[in-house]
Specification:
The protein is α/β, with parallel strands linked by helices and 224 residues long. The chain has one domain. The strands form 2 sheets. A 3-stranded parallel β-sheet has the order 1-2-3. The protein has a two-stranded antiparallel sheet with strand order 4-5. The longest helix has 23 residues. Pfam families: 2EXR. This is 2EXR domain-containing protein.
Length: 224
C-alpha cells in the first residue's frame, strides 16, 4: 500500500557540504549552454519518468545515483531536480522499518522534495491456535514489535526530516487495520505539533497513553 503525508510547512533545510567535484564547475562547457538545452541533455542521460525501487529493512538495496549528479554542485542541483521529482521513488518498508528511508530523506534537501511512494507491508502476528481451538488464533511466540519503530518515525516526522503516512487505499484486511492505525498516529502528531505547537516531549507523553490502549488490543503494539 502506497501512502505519504507531508510534514509541517515550516521546514528548515540545512546546507550540505560540497562534493569533491565542485572544483571543476567553472571548467565544464555544459554549463555555458542555455538552461533549456542543459535540461534536454540531463533528461537524455538519466531516467526521468521511471519507478525506482528502494528495499529497506534487512534486505536493503539502494539504486546507484546517476553519475551526472556527482559532477559538480550546479549540475547536481539542476539535474537532481529532474531526477528526484521526475521519477517515482518507491520505498518498500516492512513492519515500519523506515530507518533507512529516514536516513535517505535526511541526506539531501532534494530528497525531501522527491516524488516518493511509501509501500508498507506487515507480517501477521497470529497463528492458528491448534486442535483445541479450531479456527482460533494465537499470538506468535515472538511477533514483530511495531511501536518502537513507529515512535522513532513519528519523532523524525515531527522534526520535518521525512514524510509520514496517509490513510491507505488498498491492502489485506489485517494490513489495512494496522496501516489505518499508523496513519492516525501521524495525523495526531501533525495536529499536536503543527496546529497546537507542542514540542516532541509533550507529544511523546500523549503517545505513551495511546500505546497502552493499542497494546491491549494487538500484541504488535507492545514495547517488548
Amino acid at each position: 500500500m502506497d501512502s505519504t503525508r507531508s510534514c509541517r510547512e515550516d521546514t528548515v533545510i540545512k546546507g550540505t557540504s560540497p562534493a569533491a567535484g565542485d572544483s571543476v564547475q567553472q571548467m565544464s562547457p555544459l554549463l555555458e549552454l542555455p538552461a533549456e538545452l542543459r535540461n534536454t541533455i540531463y533528461a537524455m542521460t538519466m531516467p526521468t519518468d521511471a519507478v525506482i525501487n528502494y528495499h529497506t529493512g534487512a534486505d536493503a538495496t539502494y539504486p546507484r545515483q546517476p553519475r551526472l549528479l556527482q559532477v559538480c554542485r550546479q549540475i547536481r542541483s539542476e539535474a537532481g531536480s529532474l531526477y528526484y521529482r521526475g521519477n517515482t521513488h518507491k520505498f518498500h518498508i516492512p513492519d515500519l522499518d523506515a530507518a533507512q528511508y529516514i536516513h535517505w530523506s535526511q541526506c539531501s534537501p532534494q530528497h525531501k522534495k522527491a516524488n516518493i511512494h511509501l509501500h508498507m507491508s506487515f507480517a501477521i502476528p497470529f497463528v492458528l491456535a491448534g486442535k483445541y481451538f479450531p479456527g482460533g488464533l494465537a499470538a506468535k511466540d515472538d511477533p514483530e514489535r511495531l511501536w518502537p519503530k513507529l515512535r522513532s518515525w513519528l519523532q523524525h516526522y515531527h522534526a520535518c526530516e521525512c514524510l509520514g503516512v496517509a490513510r491507505p487505499v488498498d491492502g489485506t484486511e489485517y494490513s489495512l487495520k494496522v496501516a489505518n492505525t499508523v496513519s492516525e498516529m501521524f495525523e495526531m502528531v501533525h495536529k499536536l505539533g503543527h496546529d497546537h505547537g507542542l514540542y516532541w516531549p509533550q507529544i511523546e507523553a500523549v503517545l505513551e497513553n495511546v500505546q497502552g490502549a493499542l497494546a491491549s488490543a494487538n500484541v504488535v503494539w507492545q514495547l517488548r
